[in-house]
Design brief:
The complex is a heterodimer of chains A (308) and B (563).
Chain A lengths: L1 H28 L4 H4 L8 H10 L6 H13 L13 H36 L4 H15 L2 H15 L13 H30 L2 H8 L4 H29 L3 H6 L5 H11 L2 H29 L1 H4 L2
Chain B lengths: L2 H19 L3 H8 L8 H8 L3 H10 L8 E7 L12 H10 L4 E3 L5 E3 L2 E6 L5 E6 L13 H12 L9 H6 L5 H5 L9 E5 L2 E5 L7 H4 L10 H7 L13 E3 L8 E6 L12 E7 L2 H9 L5 E3 L5 H7 L4 E13 L10 H9 L3 H9 L4 E2 L22 H10 L7 E7 L5 H15 L2 E7 L1 H9 L8 E6 L6 H8 L13 H11 L8 H14 L2 E13 L3 E2 L15 E2 L2
Parallel strand pairs in B: 1-10, 14-15
Antiparallel strand pairs in B: 2-3, 4-5, 5-7, 6-7, 8-9, 9-10, 11-17, 12-16, 12-17, 13-17, 18-19
Helix pairs in contact in B: 13-15, 14-16, 18-19, 19-20
The chains are: A mainly alpha (308), B alpha+beta (563).
């Protein structure tokens, strides 16, 4: 298991440098001048442009810019925002906990709602319950989160006054409604996957063996069936978590939660290249780390993987 | 359930708990960002401040103002609230409460005393002497002197500070020696002198009769360098000003900015004890929050314009503000180098109908080159009115446009799709020319406009004033040597009129010159004027006396909390 872990970590290093270089190059290829973008419709004075270029190393050759930047990144310094001169580390320190709360709660709600629902659907296969929820989850999947968010905000927030309408001023409670909105719109995939894999696993030989050994149906299902059916579901949950860390742009905007998605949208609109690069590189790291954890979990859940 | 599955769930749970626990600072904000103000938190504050006497009076008479209470006001995240780099309307809303400059604007947009009590200039308007009050203090108690202004101006010009609004010093005001500091060639601006604490002498590189007006801009506010030093990196998030309100804590980025009344203020004190700026990502959410009662004053999203008045029981404000949007012609590119083609295209735009249909009347049709509210604006320009017959006649007389085809350029995402389409429809019907559109995101769009090739068709741009004078809508946009002149228009008559205005003794004396400049534009039509901006606000019954100014900000120091 430890050797497997080391091997996986070593694989990450080239992946990290290649992806960051690509991000760095691609963002600089976006048309439009980030310095002029800070200046609106007025033509930026030459002296100010020169000052900006010096401050943000924009006058250096691009590969030198990359090495300067990576030098800072490896010292855990993501640089300053080009639009506001704020340290991007500060922006992260504020935005990340908010997005973590939103993403964590969303995945939790999703797991809590979708896994039991999938299990029930698998156990009651082809009954009205199963068919009914297949339709319901399909509907939930089809409604855009933006519509769902606005509906939830107007009814649960303004009209019935159950949840805060927006903002983050009510502690964790502020995050419940937006997390539910996200969970609702993405749980369909998880629930359906849970159902499908559980049914697949049900036909596997080792379950027949377990039954043949005289184990009760309940134990066969819960221990041997669930454990194997969890692998794809876990993958989906982890991918969701990774995607949600990138910020749920629409939900964060509708509910006015200044998380990562909020920052990235504004950075794109303002052409704040340093923030876009910083967030993208952070997301790469987050993905890599989450994937590593998931791989470790696989190995732990399925002995075949770690003994390969 | 197996041990491992249980472990798995435990990991998920632990993750959410960690997520819940980190950054607890946010939950603390709940108590002080004014989220609950709409529910009556405000009057509690008022009583606590020992204004009980006045409060009783206020309730009885209704019309009188009573100190106390709090006002919550919705904005989107400003880029800066520190005066040396304040640049967007949100930033101005905050900075104008934190800082007072030498002068302020009166209701009729003339300059009135603020920190300066009087001012005078030499004969050619290149040397301005401001006499300052001696009782003005910064929020930390330090006195505001003439040196505070010199320090502030040098801070703006210092290239290390990367102030985006430094151009006010050398481009708008043309203060002697500012450019050199900005370019890193000199340590201090040579055109500033403080013979004593209450006298500030500003020397200009070129005559300018509207300096007292220009000085009312927040970028020309004083600074206490000892406070900047003490504040360190965080100073700009909690700047120490000299205005009617001061920071209460620091700026919570993307969440809110809290201000409290400054008791040592030299002028008319603010009415509310506290002003809480709540920051929203979208105006839609801001509006919804105000509808819910959790926000006193909100901006109005375009889709709510038609219902806003009903939604807020008539508490709706809609006023003209100082901005201008136009379709510029590439004046040196055929066929737009022909003045009759430009006139024809401008005459074929039915501005009033377009504004009514597309913007529900929340933009004013621009029938001239300067918003009517700007001092020095002349009335309607014949060539900026709707006259399809004349348009057709001029168009045909000039030989039309080859291929009957134009390309209209605009920036995407700014709400310019519909009206440019409407303009093109008019051109098709009246002149028979087909338009295609090139829409680009703002930054690449400007790159194209600024490139040497430029564009080969009409392009959208806008302008917001730096100072409330017609001159500010003229010289920057059409002056032959101005960097903000995107059309390539060059007119000796126009340039001469601007020179004549700048050498006038007072702004009023220069009005005839400004009128001449506008008449030249009316004939030459370097751009087709489209609309002048208007601003809207809605407010709840929890506040009263809400005045939205032509500068695009609310006079928050005058707002009366009633809840």
């Amino acid at each position: 298991m430890f050797r497997y872990f080391i091997r996986r970590v070593l694989q990450l290093i080239p992946v990290f440098f290649i992806t960051t270089l690509l991000i760095f190059l691609v963002i600089r290829l976006i048309p439009g001048d980030p310095v002029q973008a800070q200046f609106g419709e007025r033509r930026i004075p030459d002296t100010l442009r020169a000052n900006y270029e010096e401050r943000y190393h924009l006058n250096e050759p691009i590969f030198k810019q990359y090495f300067l930047y990576m030098g800072d990144v490896l010292r855990f310094d993501l640089g300053d925002s080009i639009a506001t001169q704020r340290p991007i580390n500060d922006i992260f320190r504020e935005a990340l906990p908010r997005t973590l709360r939103l993403a964590g709660l969303s995945v939790l709600f999703q797991a809590v709602l979708a896994i039991p629902l999938g299990v029930m659907m698998a156990r009651k296969k082809d009954t009205w319950f199963d068919n009914g929820f297949l339709v319901v989850t399909l509907i939930m999947l089809s409604v855009p989160p933006f519509v769902l968010g606005l509906l939830a905000q107007v009814y649960l927030g303004v009209k019935w006054d159950i949840f805060p309408v927006q903002g983050i001023n009510d502690g964790l409670w502020s995050y419940v409604l937006p997390s539910l909105v996200i969970a609702t719109s993405i749980m369909a995939v998880t629930a359906r996957l849970m159902r499908a894999t559980l049914l697949d696993v049900g036909r596997e030989d080792f379950l027949r063996t377990a039954r043949a050994k005289g184990l009760g149906e309940r134990r066969v299902f819960a221990v041997h069936g669930m454990r194997n059916a969890m692998i794809p579901v876990l993958t989906v949950l982890a991918i969701d978590l990774g995607a949600l860390l990138g910020g749920t742009i629409v939900t964060e905007s509708v509910f006015n939660i200044p998380g990562i998605g909020f920052q990235i949208t504004r950075a794109v609109i303002q052409r704040d290249n340093t923030i876009i690069t910083g967030i993208s590189i952070f997301l790469v790291m987050a993905y890599l780390v989450i994937n590593l954890i998931v791989d470790m979990l696989y190995a732990w859940l399925d002995p075949r993987i770690r003994y390969e | 359930m197996s041990k491992k599955l249980a472990g798995l769930l435990a990991i998920l749970m632990a993750f959410s708990l960690i997520a819940a626990a980190c950054g607890d600072d946010d939950s603390d904000d709940a108590t002080d960002t004014g989220q609950t103000d709409g529910d009556g938190d405000g009057d509690g504050e008022g009583d606590g401040e020992g204004e009980g006497e006045g409060e009783g009076e206020g309730e009885g008479t209704g019309g009188e103002t009573t100190a106390g209470g709090s006002v919550s006001y919705g904005i989107v995240e400003p880029s800066w609230i520190d005066s040396f780099n304040t640049q967007d309307s949100e930033g101005f809303e905050v900075a104008r409460l934190l800082f007072d400059g030498l002068t302020d604007y009166s209701e009729d947009l003339s300059p009135v005393p603020a920190v300066a009590t009087e001012w005078s200039a030499n004969d050619d308007k290149t040397e301005w002497t401001f006499t300052l009050r001696d009782d003005v203090t910064f929020h930390n108690g330090n006195p505001v002197t003439a040196q505070s202004f010199i320090d502030a101006f040098n801070r703006v010009a210092n290239p290390d500070n990367l102030s985006d609004v430094s151009y006010h010093g050398y481009y708008v005001a043309q203060i002697e020696g500012w450019t050199e500091v900005d370019a890193g060639e000199a340590p201090e601006i040579t055109g500033l002198a403080a013979p004593d604490d209450t006298t500030l002498v500003i020397t200009l590189a070129a005559p300018n009769p509207i300096i007292p007006k220009i000085m009312a801009h927040p970028v020309f506010s004083p600074v206490d360098l000892s406070a900047v030093e003490a504040g360190g990196d965080g100073y700009s998030d909690a700047p120490v000003g000299n205005g009617p309100y001061m920071m209460d804590g620091t700026w919570q980025h993307d969440v809110g900015i809290d201000l409290v009344r400054y008791d040592g203020y030299y002028g008319t004190p603010g009415i509310a004890d506290e002003i809480n700026f709540q920051i929203f990502d979208s105006v839609e959410t801001m509006y919804l929050t105000a509808q819910d009662g959790a926000l006193d004053i909100s901006d109005v999203p375009p889709e709510n314009i038609t219902t806003a008045e009903d939604d807020f029981n008539g508490n709706y404000i809609d006023v003209a503000v100082g901005s201008f949007t136009y379709l510029g012609f590439p004046n040196n590119t055929p066929p737009f180098d022909n003045v009759d083609i430009r006139r024809a295209l401008s005459l074929a735009i039915d501005r009033p109908t377009i504004m009514e249909e597309i913007f529900a009347g929340t933009r004013a049709p621009a029938t001239g080159f300067v918003p009517p509210l700007a001092p020095g604006a002349i009335g309607e320009c014949a060539n900026a009115t709707y006259d399809p017959d004349l348009a057709k006649e001029l168009f045909d007389g000039a030989g039309g446009i080859e291929g009957n085809q134009v390309t209209i350029y605009f920036n995407s995402g700014g709400g310019h799709e519909d009206w440019t389409q409407a303009v093109a429809n008019g051109w098709l019907q009246i002149l028979g020319i087909e338009a295609d559109f090139v829409a680009q995101e703002f930054s690449p769009y400007l790159d194209v406009l600024q490139s040497d090739e430029g564009v080969d068709g009409p392009f959208r741009l806008g302008w917001g004033w730096d100072a409330p004078s017609a001159s500010n809508f003229l010289a920057p946009l059409y002056g032959s040597d101005s960097s903000d002149n995107y059309t390539g228009y060059a007119s000796e008559a126009f340039d001469a009129a601007i020179v004549e205005f700048n050498s006038a003794q007072t702004e009023e004396e220069g009005f005839p010159a400004l009128a001449t400049a506008q008449e030249v534009l009316c004939e030459d039509v370097p751009v087709a004027p489209i609309y002048f901006g208007r601003g809207q606000r809605v407010y709840n019954d929890s506040v009263d006396n809400v005045v939205y100014s032509v500068f695009g900000f609310t006079l928050l120091e005058q707002v009366q909390p009633t809840a």
